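note to self — DONT lose this again. spent like an hour looking for the file last time. sequence + predicted structure for the chain T wanted, 65 res
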Amino acid sequence: MHFLYFDPGLGAMIIQAVVAAVAGVILFSKGLMYKIKTLLGFSKNQEENMYDDIEIKDQDSENKQ
């Protein structure tokens, strides 16, 4: 019977790979779900409404000629 030897370095590498895979799946699915919701019309496109609440007022110093 063959036994595998896991040293601390290999254990840390396996844990890091698992954490990275889980984070990658979460981020990928989050972006995919946003695109699907936007395509189907369930979510508003945030780029359209990004600057609606910003009021720009002309300053007197900008209007001097």
